Amino acid sequence: MDMILITGGAGYIGSHTILNLIEKTDYKIIIFDNLENGHIETVNTLLEINSKRQRRADARIIFEKGDLRNIEDIENVFNKHSIDGVIHFAAFALVEESVKNPSKYYRNNIYGTLNLLDTMIKHNVKRIVFSSTCATYGNPQYTPINEKHPQNPINPYGYSKLAIERIMDDYDKAYGLKSIRLRYFNVAGADEKGRIGEWHEPETHLIPNILKANDVKTFTIFGNDYDTRDGTCIRDYVNVLDLAEAHRLAYEYLLEENKTDVFNIGTGEGYSVKEVFDACERVLKKKIPVEVKGRRAGDPAVLYADIGKVKNILNWKPERSLEDSIKSSYLYFCKNKK
After folding, report:
1. What keywords sit in the KW lines (predicted)?
2. Is 70 inside a domain boundary?
3. Which end of the chain is flanked by fewer CB atoms within 10 Å, N or C?
């Protein structure tokens, strides 16, 4: 059975993908994370979940602390373990921060990935699933956005992900490295048992920030004058467990087909900020304090995915609703307020 290296496995999407692999496969897993944004508590929870599923506590999951910017760290992991493939999440992912500090994003996201890819080639590992983003598309020329939409990022985060996609094209041609790139739209939700979930510092995602609003902390809507059905931005929210399933299917597609491809991952429909806010109030069964401020620079009015390709080729489709995502996020929030 394959051994998969999961970079950024202590983070939000990486940890839920590992949970999916624990529960649905027999793959051996190496979690590689520098814990700068990921959390050792999340790693420990995954190790505990794994040990309960085994008749004995074996070494099916191994944690290796390291940084992709340090070539020795990643080289040591490949020397120690017989790795068959990679699922690559490790990256900085805050759009606003990337504008203020592009060097941090280019050095970490691009240089770190180059170290990973070069080490893979050196050790004859030729399969990688890459966590890309709809931010590579930039401002939409049309919606829903399909995989053929022009890629014109408007911030360094999006540029860094697009650069990696281009590098992977070149590595495929030169070295035969096959990659699946998953371009996600907005990700939401948590493990439905509340064991792992969304834990960012600072938190920038919409739903956790609505759930954290209270008498002291007010939720802010940025702009209510967009050309949309209620004046607020419309986005596509895919559940993190559905997204994790897409990563498993993408890896297995690489095993079977051994060819490079790209897929949008979303739900194929959009919800406005106000609709998400109203759904959160229904789940919480209480009013949430809110204030409206002006638009943020660079926020398109409407973004949602065309997911026809991933449905047809990977046989993947979203299974969970927006309210399912909110309920699981709230469960995790309540269980882990500390």
Report:
1. Carbohydrate metabolism, Isomerase, NAD
2. yes
3. C
CA distances in angstroms from 116 to 194, 231, 262, listed in the order given: 32, 43, 20
157 is catalytic: yes
pTM: 0.93
Residue 302 has a CB neighbour count (10 Å cut-off) of 18
Residue 141: CB atoms within 10 Å? 10
Assess contact for 322 and 248: CB atoms under 8 A. Answer: no
DSSP character at residue 326:
H
- Bridge partner residues of 293 (DSSP): 222
Among 3, 12, 2, smallest CA distance to 186 is for 12
List the catalytic residue out of 27, 105, 157, 159.
157
Amino acid letter, residue 271: Y
Q: Residue 5 belongs to what H/E stretch? A: strand 3-7
Domain limits at 261? Answer: 3-188+238-266+307-314
- In total, how many domains does the chain have? 1
Give the closest residue to 87 by CA, choosing from 138, 21, 148, 153: 21
Summarised one tens digit per residue, pLDDT across range 226-243 is 999 999 999 999 999 999
Q: How high does pLDDT run on average in the chain?
A: 91
CB distance 23 to 55 below 8 Å:
no
Beta-carbon contacts of residue 209 (< 8 Å; ≥ 6 apart): 203, 219
- CA pair distance 53, 23, nearest whole angstrom: 8
> Helix H segments across 129-263?
156-175, 206-212, 240-257
Specify the CATH number for the domain of residue 168: 3.40.50.720
* Domain contains 160: yes
Q: How many Å apart are CA 45 and CA 111, to the nearest integer?
A: 30
Given a contact cutoff of 8 angstroms between Cβ atoms, the answer to whether 302 and 228 are in contact is yes
pLDDT, tens digit, for every residue of 109-129? 999 999 999 999 999 999 999
